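Class, look over these structure tokens:
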Amino acid sequence: MQHVMNDVDQLMTATRDCPVVVIGAGPVGLAAAAHLVERNVPFVVLERGAAVGANVLAWGHVQLFSPWQYCVDAAAERLLQASGWQSPPADRFPTGAELVHAYLQPLAMLPPIAGAIHLATEVVRVTRHGLNKGDSRNRERQPFAVHVRAADGRTTVIQAAAIIDASGTYTNPNPLGAAGVPAPGEPEAAPQCVYGIPDVAGVDRMRYVGKRVAVVGSGHSAFQALLELLALKQAHPTTQITWVIRRSTDALETIYGGGAGDALPERGALGQRMRAAVDAGQLALVCDWRTDAVVQTQAGVVLCDGMRQLAPVDEVIVTTGFRPDVHMLGELRVGLDEIVEAPHALAPHIDPNLHSCGTVPPHGIRELRHPEPGLFVVGMKSYGRAPTFLLLTGYEQVRSVVAGLAGDWQAALDVQLVLPETGVCSGPDAGACCVPVAQSVAMIDSCCAPAPRTVTVHDIAVLLDAPASRCC
């Protein structure tokens, strides 16, 4: 770790006249801005959308299962309260739109932050100034070159001391095709497909009234869409709903989540409402399904899986998750796990093939580092293709990263985080999934335990020194 500290310190010294560039003005990007303000580190925030929290507004109708107490960054709250801002009730559950309007917009309007935000500004590419990926000469002392495109199409280059990429994954959804690429016929069926969570109860209501609708996916996004469709069906009984999942019937209990054992009650309640709907026969359930073709017929859209095919539907809601778009980082030395596409030190703890605890050991600048000095991917994008992420995780990430960029390495490495547990840990052997890690950190709270846990930087150091294990 000492060489990482030295590289970052040298970079920040050599590029002292350049700002830190934060990519993305969502919750985690603006939290980074708040910490940079407190540390008196110059910065700019580049947001592709026309407003702060643009990605969040895209699902603004959806209520979070995290209450306000888990949605506000500590540094952001300090800055806001100094301006007279009143925090919403800690136990209320905001919608995405409320998160933006009641928190992100007031934060972005604070004078130390407002002048640093550039909206409708897309980051096209990030490189080292004058260096390609293969050139190592004096690399750790060269600023980054951030190539940006404005709304009018003009391109410019901004030199940066460091990069905090908080651009998220919401604009890059996974396809319907089970092989990770669009299934044959999927692009042609795009008018009948929605990727993400449509506003079934609001502006998209008439699109689904009385229609045959297939929802593909087994996460919380699927639950949200399905429950809204079920409410629609109560008013319009001719609406038909089919829930399509890749996992087997035996996995349903894990899919439904921890129920009353979930430390976030709203998250647990989603799964229990889905269980009740399936048990009551309110929708059709198709398990062990992997879409390998999409066929448009006169009767409707037909999803195919090998030799099987579903009955025709009018609409398909694709809630198969999201993935990071790292194209803009292509000329930088990015170190990503080959499966999860998260940093190597973080990936073993979030791989959904082996567990889905909803929590992860606390991590910061140490675990988020890349071979490229000064590059940090944070927030949802740091989780790669892993499906679960809480804002508190991103807030602690940027607190640690910004402390390191400011040269306060004691604070940067003192990573602590308390996350609400899901009450369930899934995987090939959920009962034993935590054993290797628990042993290597002297039996720190099990990842499967229903109570919140705190793990210190000492614990994570022990964990990093232990043999690699894809577990909690």
Notes: The chain has two domains: 2-171+322-427, 190-318. The longest helix spans residues 220-235. The longest strand covers residues 121-128. Residues 46 and 118 are 5 Å apart (CA to CA).
